[in-house]
Design goal:
The chain has helices at about 5-25, 75-80, 105-140, 145-180; strands spanning about 40, 45-50, 55-60, 60-65, 90, 95-100. The protein is an alpha+beta fold.
């Protein structure tokens, strides 16, 4: 019997990964996701920003990072600068303030291009999950599963893949609208 729960779980992971990737794309509004995964040199190793301090939205165009260890202020500022995301960090007392620059039309189009690449990667992942499921059904057929059962399983896989692709398209449309809204 084909494990549809595992198959659906794999499809859901593709969509979750896409959502995570797209949450880090800049839409002109300051969000924690923009900088939480930026790498910071701390204690002789590289850590994600979210692992060294509290990140908060100060206003629509700026974020603040309050490190748990004040000796990391400089490292946090350098990490943000080195990320090449166009953010402008400044140390203000015990926090690092991060200015989120205005989005130019050129930059918006650049982000849409990056977003489309990430969407295509998600579609490829869904195709790979589909292909693995089909191979598993072929194997089950060799091991004695009936033709009717294999056909029903294949139809169910196609139905679920179609639903996953529709979700991906929905996510793409929403993100593109967000990116192009001034």
């Amino acid at each position: 019997m084909f494990d549809f729960n595992q198959f659906q779980s794999n499809l859901d992971k593709c969509i979750e990964h896409l959502n995570l990737d797209l949450s880090q794309l800049h839409t002109g509004r300051a969000t924690v996701e923009l900088i939480e995964d930026i790498k910071v040199n701390a204690y002789g190793t590289t850590m994600a920003m979210k692992a060294v301090g509290t990140i908060a939205v100060a206003d629509a165009k700026s974020l603040t990072v309050q490190p748990w260890d004040q000796t990391l202020l400089e490292s946090i500022s350098k990490g943000i600068s080195a990320s090449n995301l166009g953010f402008l960090p400044s140390i203000e007392g015990e926090i690092v303030r991060v200015k989120v620059p205005e989005m130019t039309e050129e930059r918006r189009l650049e982000y849409v291009k990056v977003m489309k690449d990430k969407v295509e990667q998600a579609r490829v992942s869904v195709r790979n999950v589909r292909q693995d499921g089909m191979k598993e059904i072929d194997q089950m057929l060799k091991e004695g599963t009936s033709e009717d059962e294999a056909k029903r399983s294949r139809e169910e896989i196609e139905k679920r893949v179609k639903t996953a692709n529709e979700k991906i398209e929905e996510i793409r449309e929403k993100k593109e609208k967000d990116l192009m809204t001034i």
